[in-house]
Write a structure and sequence with these properties.
single chain, 442 residues, Helix Hairpins, six-stranded mixed β-sheet
Length: 442
């Protein structure tokens, strides 16, 4: 599976790459321009030097007199390395005078005023004494190349600290610029079925504003759909309660009036079905309340009081009489900012589930673990890990023949999340080889 692409990393790579590429391109263009400018400067200096040397060389030759052998000037400066060398030649090309680093052999260029170039030197020729004397000054090409290399290197050196510096600066700029995306992401993540409020668009950048507007339109449609579903569920369940209760009462009265036989058995079967429908209606009402997001309360309450009340209520019922064991200290308190109705619904569903699916006549134990976890456990056959993962889904039962509506644990898990807690299902129960245990951690 490929890793997701990071916009920040990609943007940083592109910005740094483009910045370095532009700098290199600018340095290359500058080096190209400098090369031609340097040639002009060196040529100008070479020409000017030649023209200034002409009267000096003529005067020197005049004072020394004619000679058939070329003479080397400035004998005292032999240790000095010359950048410019020169030769004075007559009309026949014979070298009359040369600098101490210049060769005795004539330069391999014609005696014509102007610039000439060999494989190693750039030479300027200047005529004097009506064309009977020529002065040729040579500038080594290596000298020019060295100057060009140093200048180009001085342009490229800033790229070395520029790359890491650009990385830091671009990272800071990109991080600061992309902060609204992080805030926008957190705003979207905070939305769920209990919070479908629109996202504030005015505080977002223009690029994110259009996305936020689209998200708000989607949230509005989702909010309308969820509200319609909740209203239908709540209204349908509420409207069904009265006729179902009436039908149940009539069937119970009919069962009492019928003589013993098949008719009475069928009446009791109808009564069982109506009682199951009554439980389903009650669960649908609880589901509608759970989806409305009633988990948290404005103020903290003592949940231990609710635990005792719910346990006592089941102890008085026909299903739970003699089967409820409350393992909790009389002085124990559990204070949380949790809605009392939501907590009572969760606890009732967990106890009902234990009573229905536990072994008949075996107790259902309600206890406190680790000061913040409420345990509801019962005996009975174990449930496989695969089935445990499915039990919090709607209308999911441990087996096809199991009693119950398949909504109790789903409602309990939903409300537990809304209360900031979690519902953990285990089988077998702790320190036992059988049974089932539901742990509500707040």
């Amino acid at each position: 599976m490929s890793r997701p692409i990071s916009m920040t990393r990609r943007l940083m790579r592109w910005l740094i790459g483009v910045a370095v590429l532009f700098w290199l391109a600018a340095a290359g263009l500058a080096a190209f321009v400098m090369y031609h400018e340097y040639q002009e400067v060196f040529d100008s200096a070479l020409q000017e030097t030649t023209q200034r040397l002409v009267p000096i060389v003529v005067d020197d030759l005049y004072q020394r007199g004619a000679s058939t052998n070329p003479r080397r000037i400035d004998e005292a400066a032999l240790a000095h390395k010359e950048h410019l060398i020169y030769q004075a030649r007559d009309a026949n090309g014979q070298v009359l005078l040369h600098s101490h680093d210049a060769p005795q052999q004539p330069f391999d260029v014609p005696l014509v005023t102007g610039f000439h170039q060999t494989a190693t030197h750039r030479i300027y020729t200047e005529a004097a004494l009506s064309g009977t004397l020529f002065l040729q000054v040579a500038d080594p090409l290596e000298h020019r190349r060295e100057a060009m290399r140093e200048s180009a290197f001085s342009l490229l050196v800033p790229v070395l600290p520029l790359a890491p510096l650009s990385l830091v600066v671009i990272w800071l700029v990109v991080r600061q610029s992309l902060k609204p995306i992080g805030s926008f992401t957190r705003e979207i993540a905070a939305r769920d079925s209990a919070n479908l409020s629109p996202i504030e668009v005015e505080t977002l950048p223009t690029e994110l504003g259009t996305i936020a507007s689209s998200v708000n339109h989607l949230l509005a449609r989702l909010r309308d759909a969820i509200n319609a579903e909740r209203e239908f569920t709540a209204n349908a369940a509420h409207e069904l309660r009265t006729p179902i209760a009436g039908a149940l009462a009539q069937v119970q009265r009919l069962a009492l009036e019928l003589p013993t036989g098949g008719a009475r058995i069928r009446a009791h079967n109808v009564e069982t079905s109506l009682m199951r429908l009554t439980r389903l209606t009650e669960k649908l009402l609880q589901l509608a309340r759970a989806e409305a997001g009633i988990g948290l309360a404005a103020e903290a309450i003592d949940l231990a009081v609710v635990i005792r009340l719910v346990a006592a209520e089941f102890e008085r019922s026909a299903e739970g009489a003699g089967r409820i064991v409350l393992d909790m200290e009389p002085s124990y308190t559990l204070t949380r900012r949790v809605d009392v109705d939501a907590f009572a619904i969760v606890l009732r569903n967990l106890i009902e589930n234990a009573l229905i699916h536990g072994t008949a006549d075996d107790p259902v134990t309600i206890s406190i673990k680790n000061h913040d976890t409420i345990s509801v456990s019962n005996s009975g056959p174990t449930v496989s890990p695969e089935e445990l993962e499915k039990l919090t889904a709607r209308f999911q039962r441990a087996s096809a023949n199991a009693k119950g509506t398949g909504l109790g644990l789903s409602i309990a898990a939903t409300l537990a999340r809304q209360m900031g807690g979690a519902l953990d299902l285990r089988s077998p129960r702790a320190n036992r080889s059988d049974g089932f245990e539901a742990l509500l951690t707040l």
